[in-house]
């Protein structure tokens, strides 16, 4: 991967003394195109630029994208953002607690990375994307020219050479610190020493990367780079849009945390929970218990622990909550039933062993007839990372079933990517998310 330093734009600390107020989760974590935690926190929160709300008066000339451009211009005039004097790379460390309470540090660095088609295998995806989010991000990039949505990628470095260089180059005083959600803290440095930058560039030059988070943003960057190349004669600065902001994190880092993404099923025509439970017996061993309305937290945690034990023992397992039956069940996949499933012909054995692949082929597609077209509509499945939130949402009358999953191990993600496959949609939730508003690039 070819990387470059850049002169980043950052919040002016004389104007914004508390950076906690102005950073934001990335756009894909917003619900209903808005997140009041960030929009209402501060008038200069980056969310106003990256996810300006739609209004009933929107028109081709005045809309969420042109409003973002107008806000950006205004904030630049007001010196809300300042550009660094020298190009650099930006070590970005996130401190966060694991489920057991231990605090760990995920060490990465932000730099410009050259974009390329997936076919070159320099940048490797692990999941499919959808057209609507990509069009949204492309329109924002066209309007503002701001490269703010940092892509989270993983590079392999078993010896930790690059992390060692980052540790040597960073001191006790970051240029920016800000608290994020879920007891997470963000620390950012700027490193402009040419020798250090050159050493990191050399260490990265032969490394492919795996996209952990930001597939839509990456594919938009590829498309925009083509548009930019057609405009090089207007201004040589368009050449810089061949590159995209990445945060590079070591694949072998012990601070890689993947959360599961649970499924809430709604609006399924003809869904009968008793019949569904019987159909599951074709592929799974089922241990079901009756629960009162809702699921007591202790019972939910017990189920999740049993699921994790099954996974550790090498078995595919998941949980099911059927509010209509007041039933909570542990499903353990019977390996011998795999031969009865209609597996996609182009998928590897590694892909077929994923819990989410078994869910997709055996349950969603095989029993409920929810194929890729139906899932793309977005009407039948809601995705939630917190198991407690998922079962709470089951109180809504439209909810027919909750499917609880184990997190997908990083080794399985890596193996599927190396096999040239893509994981089913919404397989992984890398935690924590990269925050927006710490630094961004703008080349024109």
Structural account:
The chain has helices spanning 36-39, 47-50, 64-77, 131-144, 161-169, 194-204, 215-229, 273-280, 297-312, 349-352, 355-365, 372-377, 387-393, 410-418, and strands spanning 3-4, 9-11, 81-83, 90-97, 103-114, 123-124, 146-147, 151-155, 176-180, 184-188, 209-213, 243-250, 257-259, 262-266, 284-290, 317-322, 327-333, 381-384, 399-405, 429-431, 441-442. With 444 residues, the chain is of the alpha+beta class. Strands 1, 4, 5, 6, 8, 9, 10, 11 and 12 form a nine-stranded mixed β-sheet that branches. A six-stranded antiparallel β-sheet has the order 15-17-16-19-14-18, sandwiched between helices. Helix 3 runs parallel beside helix 4. The protein is globular and about 65 Å long. It starts with a strand and ends with a strand. 38% of the residues are buried. The mean pLDDT is 93.
């Amino acid at each position: 991967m070819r990387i470059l330093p850049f002169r980043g734009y950052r919040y002016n600390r004389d104007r914004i003394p508390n950076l906690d107020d102005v950073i934001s989760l990335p756009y894909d974590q917003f619900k209903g195109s808005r997140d009041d935690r960030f929009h209402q926190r501060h008038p200069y929160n980056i969310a106003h630029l990256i996810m300006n709300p739609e209004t009933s008066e929107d028109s081709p000339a005045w809309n969420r994208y042109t409003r973002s451009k107008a806000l950006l211009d205004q904030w630049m005039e007001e010196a809300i953002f300042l550009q660094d004097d020298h190009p650099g790379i930006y070590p970005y460390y996130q401190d966060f607690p694991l489920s057991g309470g231990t605090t760990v540090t995920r060490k990465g660095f932000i730099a410009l990375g050259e974009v390329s088609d997936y076919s070159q295998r320099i940048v490797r995806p692990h999941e499919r994307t959808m057209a609507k989010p990509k069009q949204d991000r492309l329109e924002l990039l066209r309007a503002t020219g701001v490269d703010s949505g940092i892509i989270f990628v993983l590079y392999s470095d078993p010896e930790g050479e690059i992390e060692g260089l980052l540790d040597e180059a960073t001191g006790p005083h970051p240029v920016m610190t800000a608290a994020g959600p879920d007891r997470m803290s963000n620390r950012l440095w700027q490193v402009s020493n040419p020798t250090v930058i050159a050493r990191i560039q050399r260490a990265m030059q032969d490394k492919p990367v795996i996209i952990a988070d930001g597939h839509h943003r990456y594919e938009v960057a590829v498309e925009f780079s083509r548009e930019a190349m057609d405009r090089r004669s207007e201004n040589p600065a368009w050449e810089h849009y061949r590159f995209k902001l990445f945060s590079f994190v070591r694949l072998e880092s012990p601070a890689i945390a993947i959360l599961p993404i649970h499924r809430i099923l709604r609006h399924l025509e003809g869904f009968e929970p008793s019949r569904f439970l019987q159909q599951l017996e074709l592929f799974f061993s089922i241990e079901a218990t009756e629960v009162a309305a809702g699921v007591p937290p202790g019972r939910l945690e017990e189920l999740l622990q049993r699921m994790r034990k099954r996974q550790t023992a090498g078995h595919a397992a998941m949980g099911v909550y059927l509010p209509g039956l007041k039933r909570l069940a542990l499903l353990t996949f019977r390996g011998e039933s795999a031969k009865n499933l209609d597996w996609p012909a182009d998928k590897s054995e590694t892909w077929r062993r994923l819990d989410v692949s078994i869910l997709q082929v055996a349950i969603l597609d095989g029993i409920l007839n929810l194929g890729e077209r139906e899932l793309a509509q977005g009407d039948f499945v809601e995705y939630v990372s917190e198991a407690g939130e998922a079962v709470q949402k089951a109180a809504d009358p439209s909810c027919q079933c909750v499917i609880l999953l184990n997190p997908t191990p990083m080794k399985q993600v890596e193996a599927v990517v190396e096999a040239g496959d893509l994981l089913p949609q919404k397989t992984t939730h890398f935690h924590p998310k990269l925050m927006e508003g710490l630094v961004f690039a703008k080349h024109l």
